[in-house]
Amino acid sequence: MTDLTASSLRALKLMDLTTLNDDDTNEKVIALCHQAKTPVGNTAAICIYPRFIPIARKTLKEQGTPDIRIATVTNFPHGNDDIDIALAETRAAIAYGADEVGRGIPVPRADCR
Question: Any idea which UniProt keywords this protein has (predicted)?
């Protein structure tokens, strides 16, 4: 195995495949799950909106790749100021079965000058 091949395989295992589009559907998420499984190895995770976690979990299990993690985002893309809503969305994502949760924050709060 060449260094390039070894590096490529290692990179594949660190990648997330993401779909966070307004027009996402169950079918698009199922297709993403199928893309995450490759003949040379699986991606580390898929990143989807929380409402698609159950169908993704089912698909990953059925295709024999339950080790592919499910990442999601909350308070996204708006990153509004209502912390209670952001926490509720995060709790719901965890309840759905997310392995990883990224949370959008308001840009002024992210400015660390």
Answer: Lyase, Schiff base
pLDDT for position 113: 57
The structural domains of the chain, with segments of one domain joined by +, span 3-110
> What pTM, to 2 d.p., does this model score?
0.84
3-110 folds as: TIM Barrel (3.20.20)
Element (H, E) at 109: helix 107-110
Amino acid type, 85: I
- 1 pLDDT higher than 80: no
Cα–Cα distance, 108 to 103 (Å, whole number) = 15
Cα–Cα distance for residue pair 4/88, rounded to 1 Å: 44
Residues in the chain: 113
Residue 71 in 3-state DSSP? Answer: strand
